[in-house]
Write a structure and sequence with these properties.
mainly alpha, Non-ribosomal Peptide Synthetase Peptidyl Carrier Protein, Chain A, 4 helices, about 0% strand, globular
Length: about 80
């Protein structure tokens, strides 16, 4: 299972969303996630992948798209 698959599985489990999820789609704009879900997803990603996000990481550009979140995870993993 890839990082994106892991995150999609979490979204489906936590929100019950069953529609398609494009890793490059803005999940807030598409209505897949709300602001609470985004924070929960970031917390889950930290725990799941053993990374710690900095305050400047927690912005829409990094969190609203799964592809951006996975890129952030990889950056944080590389600096850990």
């Amino acid at each position: 299972m890839t990082d994106i698959d892991t995150l999609i599985a979490w979204i489906r489990e936590e929100t019950g969303y069953t529609g398609p999820i494009d890793p490059d789609e803005d999940l807030l704009q598409a209505g897949v996630l709300d602001s609470f879900n985004i924070v929960s997803l970031a917390m889950h990603a930290q725990e799941q992948f053993g990374v710690e996000f900095e305050g400047e990481d927690l912005v829409r550009d990094n969190l609203a798209r799964l592809s951006s979140l996975v890129a952030l995870i990889k950056r944080r993993t590389a600096t850990a």
